[in-house]
Structure formats: structure tokens, C-alpha cells
Amino acid sequence: MMHSLMRYKMWADAELMRAVLALPSLVAAPEGAFVTAIIRHFHTADCVFRAHLLGIPHDYTSANPLEPATLAELGPRVAAIDERYVSYTRDLDANDLWQALHVRFTDGDEQLLTRSDILLHVSLHGAYHRGNVGILLRKHGLEPLPDRFTTFLRRGCETHAP
């Protein structure tokens, strides 16, 4: 299940990036800065939680980094982290999903989360923020993105094999 969720996330994020990069006018629009900030935020969270899963340090002190990034710069970064999650879950033993990990959030709060908790959070967090961007894209005249899990199962599975 976690592998399917990460494949879905990779597909949905790719659809989102394709849509926003196909709208050069979005960069200059008032919504453009919000779209970039939202994508940068969920990408940062993906990087932070991947570090927790791997037990490696990360340099993030905020889930909303101050350094600028353009949509064009974020595209390959989002694709790369999504591919890492897909690879991670492909090779993950199901018994390891229940292993509790000590997580320190960028705000300093701490919590024990299982690998399953983390992967589910990454999937849901991404979906939530793709919805935020979808509202801004709709305001910009674009139809909502087809990013439902059932749409992925119908369309995405053929093009994004495990």
C-alpha cells in the first residue's frame, strides 16, 4: 500500500508540475508566488521526512525555507524526491513499517512516528497542498487537476510501473 501511495504521489506531483510549468503567465501573476511557496514547502517537508526515515541529518530549520526557488528549479527537485520515496517503499520490508522513529520537527517539537505514519503523512500532506495549488490554478482559469488516487489507478499505473 505504501508503495502505491508513493507512486501515486509521484504521478500527481508530476501532473501538478506539468500544469504549472505550462503556464508561463502564472509566474507573473499574484498567484505565482503562492504556488511556488506551496510547492517549495511540501518539497521541503518531503526532504525532512525522508531524512527521518533514513536516520540522517538534514539542514532544514524551517518547513518554509527563505531561499528562493523558481518553479523550473523545483520541478526536478520534486521529481527526484518522489523517485526516492518510490524506491524506498519498493525495497521496504513490510515489518519495518511499524518501526518507531524519533522525529524532531523543524520547529523543535519531537514525536515518535512509525515509518508507516511518516509515509502516510508525506502522501496526505502532498495531496493537501496540491489541493491548495489547484484552487490557485482554478483562479487563474485552469480546470482542476485529475489528481485523485482512483484516477491514478485508472491512468497512472500504466505509465508509472513499479
Q: What descriptors fit this protein?
A:
Four Helix Bundle (Hemerythrin (Met), subunit A), 6% strand, 162 residues, mainly alpha, 2 strands
| Helicity range | 55-70%
Query: What's the N-to-C terminus distance?
Result: 12 Å
| Count, helices | 6
Shape: globular
- Sheet with most strands: strand arrangement: 1-2
Q: How many domains make up the 3D coordinates? A: 1
Structural class: mainly alpha
Strand tally, please? Answer: 2
> Which CATH-level-2 architecture?
Up-down Bundle
Strand content: 5-15%
The average pLDDT value, as a whole number, equals 90
Description:
This protein is mainly alpha-helical and 162 residues long. It has a single domain (2-159), classed as dinb family like domain (Four Helix Bundle (Hemerythrin (Met), subunit A), Up-down Bundle), CATH 1.20.120.450. It contains six helices and two strands; from the N terminus they run ααααββαα. Strands 1-2 form a two-stranded antiparallel ribbon. Strand 1 (100-104) and strand 2 form a beta hairpin. The radius of gyration is 16 Å and the shape is globular.
Report a brief summary of the structure.
This protein has 162 residues and is mostly helical. The protein contains six helices and two strands, in the order H-H-H-H-E-E-H-H.
Helices and strands in order:
Layout: H1 2-21, H2 24-28, H3 30-54, H4 71-90, E1 100-104, E2 110-114, H5 115-139, H6 149-159
Helix pairs in contact: 1-4, 1-5, 1-6, 3-4, 3-5
